[in-house]
Amino acid sequence: MRCVGNIWRLPLAATTLILCGMATAGAHAIAGQRLFPSTLSFDDPGIGAELPLVFSHIRADGAMQNGLDIAVTKPVTQNFSLIAGSSYTDATSQGTPTLHGWGNFALGGVWQVYRNADAESIGSFSLSRSFAHTGSRAVRDDFSTWSPAFNFGKGFGQAGANWLRPFALTGSLGLDLPNRADEPRMLNWALSLQYSIPYLQDFVKYAGIKAPFDRMIPIVELPMQTCLDRGCRGQTTGYVAPGVIRVGRRVQWGVELLAPVNRRTGHSIGVMLGFNLYLDDLAPHGFGAPLFR
Question: What is the pTM of this model?
Answer without folding.
Answer: 0.86
